[in-house]
Amino acid sequence: AQSVTQLDSQVPVFEEAPVELRCNYSSSVSVYLFWYVQYPNQGLQLLLKYLSGSTLVKGINGFEAEFNKSQTSFHLRKPSVHISDTAEYFCAVSEDFGNEKLTFGTGTRLTIIP
Amino acid sequence: DTEVTQTPKHLVMGMTNKKSLKCEQHMGHRAMYWYKQKAKKPPELMFVYSYEKLSINESVPSRFSPECPNSSLLNLHLHALQPEDSALYLCASSPRTGGDYEQYFGPGTRLTVT
Questions:
Q1: For A30-70, what is each residue's pLDDT tens digit?
Q2: What pLDDT is stored for residue B5 in this prediction?
Q3: Which residue among B1, B13, B49, B97 has the highest number of C-beta atoms inside a 10 angstrom radius?
Q4: What radius of gyration do chain B's Cα atoms show?
Q5: Hey, of B44, B58, B96, B102, which one would you mutate to test binding to chain A, going by the most A CBs within 10 A of its CB?
Q6: For B44-85, what is each residue's pLDDT tens digit?
Q7: Do A36 and B50 touch (CB under 8 A)?
Q8: Rounded Cα–Cα distance for residues A25 and A33 (Å)
Q9: Which residues from A are below 8 Å from B45, CB to CB?
């Protein structure tokens, strides 16, 4: 069975500073990996996804993530954050044999300090 | 049209009421999902419809009844709910073709059971 761990429940960062949100996964087969963002009182929006190919994935709003198979990680990074990045961030995994289930991590609340 | 729509945005219902949530997408996606999200928690999968057939039921109580009348529409019928069923209900859809397993989420229906 697949699982996702987001070790940091809250991450405060000063505006214009870099940030890394950590995500580790567990699966016995190959996986697809996703980062979603949820702004207050809204649904989830896809930031980026890893399906195959290059391990460095670029997404929307200046975010990127690197897939590391040996460390089973998919950490999300942004070199300079903005106030508007304040939101909840969810890492999610789906096993690549056509599994319809998306398993979410517990989420990381990113708070940008002016 | 690249979005998933959900109606209503907010719903307040008593424990003896019957109501329905509606979800619609016109992206030609063949999988549709219902999730329940409690405050400060990740979404929890409830049901998956694949090619208009129920493929996954995550042991959801029978007071929640899903329906997929056609490939664009997904309903969730609610009856005799409990206060602990108050949550944000999210709908999502996915192409399920061409190796694309990304899920596109709607804005959600905020349900309060009194």
A1: 888 999 999 988 899 999 999 888 899 999 999 999 999 99
A2: 96
A3: B49
A4: 13
A5: B102
A6: 999 999 999 999 999 999 999 999 999 999 999 999 999 999
A7: no
A8: 9
A9: 101-102
